[in-house]
Design goal:
Strands 3-2-1-4-5-6-11 form a 7-stranded parallel β-sheet, with helices on both faces. A 3-stranded mixed β-sheet has the order 12-9-14. It has a two-stranded parallel sheet with strand order 7-10. Helix 1 packs across helix 6, helix 3 packs parallel to helix 4 and helix 5 crosses helix 7. It contains 9 helices and 14 strands. Strand 5, helix 4 and strand 6 form a beta-alpha-beta unit. The chain is of the alpha/beta class.
């Protein structure tokens, strides 16, 4: 299988490329990657040219730009048009849901309250209409193991006296980047369509997540400043999807457990 991975310069895309045992072609927009092909998903002609050149059997679309509607919403639609005869996995987000006391399962209807969430919801709608055999994989905060994720960088900066704070009332279901990438690669050759949820099984606040990162990395968790912040509890229920896949999505308290020396 020849696999095209968009956003290969990012945390998730890079991990997918690293783990894949397929013939992988990574793509990037502004930060070159080794063996990669430049791709601007906003440009339909460029997408068509890359598709003709690479001729992929499958695509994992992990590229996005949080503050750019065209990249995040229109880009996936452009890709879906060009890849209607190709297996397409679209990485979406829990941010297309509003704060709720209840968890969101795979049947939940998007109800975004932010521009980024709205862009991802629009992308899902377009993909469902254009490429009904595509798979939409919603996930949550992605955490790494080498300080590469946004949450890890912020925690280290705050522990070192940087400006800002961690929100107490912002709750998500973090997932380890390796677990997520492995699950996506497991699902790629399958015939599953529709929506899957690939969030971690444990919900924590941004502050709790930061404290877990700090403890793992030998930093003082009590040095992390916090503020209540606006209430935003978004819990992604991945129970149904977890029963369908062999990849185990670990709880954040497990994958951020300090390593014994």
């Amino acid at each position: 299988m020849r696999l095209l991975v968009t956003g290969a310069a990012g945390l998730l895309g890079r991990e997918v490329v690293r783990l894949a045992d397929h013939d992988v072609v990574p793509t990037y927009h502004s930060t070159p990657v080794e063996g990669g092909v430049r791709l601007d998903v906003r440009d339909r002609d460029e997408i068509d040219a890359v598709m003709r050149r690479v001729r992929p059997d499958a695509i994992i679309h992990a590229a996005f730009k949080q503050d750019d509607w065209v990249t995040t919403a229109t880009g996936p639609a452009n890709l879906a048009v060009a890849a209607r005869d190709v297996r397409l996995i679209f990485v979406s987000t829990d941010a297309l849901f509003a704060s709720s006391i209840d968890s969101y399962d795979e049947d939940a209807v998007p109800c975004p309250t932010t521009p980024y969430g709205a862009a991802k919801a629009a992308a899902e709608t377009a993909i469902r209409a254009i490429h009904p055999d595509a798979l939409i994989a919603r996930t949550s905060l992605i955490v790494g193991s080498e300080g590469r994720s946004e949450s890890e960088r912020l925690t280290h900066a705050l522990a070192g006296g940087g400006s800002g704070a961690l929100f107490v009332e912002n709750v998500r279901c973090p997932v380890h980047v390796t677990d997520l990438a492995t699950a996506l690669l497991e699902l790629t050759p399958s015939d599953r369509t529709g929506v899957v949820h690939l969030g971690g099984p444990e919900a924590v606040s941004r502050l709790e997540l930061g404290r877990l990162i700090a403890i793992r990395d030998g930093l003082d968790p009590d040095a992390l400043p916090s503020v209540p912040g606006a209430v935003s509890h978004i819990r992604l229920d991945s129970t149904r999807t977890q029963r369908l896949i062999g990849t185990r999505l670990r709880p954040v308290s497990e994958f951020l457990r300090p390593l014994r020396s």
